[in-house]
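Protein 1 of 2
SEQ + STRUCT:
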Amino acid sequence: METRLKFEYDDIGDILYISSVDPYPEQESDMLAYNLVARRNPHTDAIESLEILFFTRWLLKEGEPKVRGLAELFAQPAEAPPA
C-alpha cells in the first residue's frame, strides 16, 4: 500500500510540513540541516515527517517575495461535489 503524503504550509511561521502521519508526542526530532527538521518513529527510526523552516527563502533568491498564497498552494484539494 502506498503512503500518502500530506503537505501543509504555515504562512506565519514560514514552515512547510510534509508528513505521512499526524504528529504525536513520542516522535523524535532530528535537525538534519539549519532549516530542516525530521520527525522519526521512536520504534522503527523511520522518518514520518519533515519540516522545512524559512521555506520561502528556498523559493526566492533575493528581494521581495513574488509568491503569495502558499497556504492555498499546499492545501488539500477540495472534494468534487457529487454529480
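Protein 2 of 2
SEQ + STRUCT:
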Amino acid sequence: MYRSVLVPLDGSHRSEWALPGAIGIARRQTAQIELMIVEPVIPVAPRFDGTISDGAEPWRNEADSAWLTYVTGIAERVKAVYPATVTSTVRVGRA
C-alpha cells in the first residue's frame, strides 16, 4: 500500500506524461501525490577576497520563482482531477 506517489518533474512536457499514471496509482491506493523539481547546482568560484560567489543570485531568484510558479500550476491541474493532498517541492541540487 502506498501512502504517497512521488512525481519528479523537470519542466518538460515529457516529464508531465507521468502524471496520469501517478494519479491512477494514487487514486487506487488513496495516496497523496508529491511533485518534486530538483534544480541543478550552479558551480561557484572563489572570489579574490576569499569569499565564494557565483554571481548568479539575481538569476537564481528568478529561476526559483519560475520553478515555484510551474510546480504550483501542475499541482492545481492535478487537484482538479484528483482532489487529494498534493504537495510540491523545489529543491536545489539534491533530492
